[in-house]
Amino acid sequence: MNTPHPFRYISISLQRYMLRASLIAISVMPVLPANAIDINFDYRFDTQGMFSDPTRRAALEAAATVYDRFTDNLLAINPDAQNTWSLSINRPDGGGNVTLNNLNVNAQSITVFVGGWGFHPSVLGWAGAGNITNVSGSIAWQQTIQARGQLGALDPNPTDYGVWGGAITFNKNVDWHFDLNTDPAENQQDFLTTAMHEIGHILGFGEAASWGQHIQGDAENGYTFHGQNSLDLIGHPIALDRYGSHWAEGTYSVIDGNLQETAMDPSTPRGQRQWMTDLDYAGFADIGWEIPEPTVAFVFMSCSLLLLGRHRSTNTNSTIETGDLS
Ligand SMILES: [Zn+2]
Fold first, then answer.
1. 28 alpha carbon – ligand 1 mean position (Å)
2. pTM, whole model, 2 decimals?
3. 153 within 8 A of 109, measured Cβ to Cβ
4. What pLDDT, on the 0 to 100 scale, is given for residue 28?
5. 263 with 275: CB under 8 angstroms?
6. Which entry of 8, 62, 146, 213 is 20 to 30 Å from 109 by CA?
7. How many helices (H) and strands (E) does the chain have?
């Protein structure tokens, strides 16, 4: 889940000409690993028109590119007469639960149903992988449904994660900023930032059994995260939110040496675009995702997008949200 940020936030202003130069460079440089995972959005339940505007779909696609660094080999889910399955998801248009029978999911691909409806503005959106309600067929088929071929995902103490996909619901009542080439206004929520965060939950952040393996503590005294990649990066256990499903509110890390609040803490400031920090990626690696060191081209793109993300007015006047921040 992603919520509006409860705090004022000051970031760095940069010159427009730098941004223009960076964007031109992005457009001519191929950056995808050969075997990148593919996040495939499905709009069949977008009955309230959250994504009827192509600009909005473009922002969603841009959020998915953050995960292009993940290079796991995900097995295809191709049901047939002998191998069948059903799942139940929470419709992203607020229409309640729906059962899907024998969904096809391509190799390397994850299917994410998206849509929106209007609810209380203290919540920007949420995500879930639904419930697999029936699997019938060979042992190999059942394992593919549950783990997509990820070794260790079905161990008693899981070390990896493979998922068919999920559903993301966005709040239509929020004043979203969808444009990729401009900064969000000081009172707007950046859609790309929230979409990136919610896709992260679909990929198991705060949700996967292999994430839970690394949590210590309890609700009363607080949870900490002990995944090895994260420990190696930070040097000590990382505090989590009270559900153990995000980094603690206000956890910071770096992108190419620049400090930024983590993308996978519970809330997002108005007027600001965030990207995945080193700690966010370390968390995904601890879930079991294979995340090679970025190529030179990818580093360049990340840096360029960071410049874009950090350029905004310093005259922010966000109001403090109260309520549940998780
Ligand atoms: Zn969240």
1. 33
2. 0.84
3. no
4. 42
5. yes
6. 213
7. 8, 16
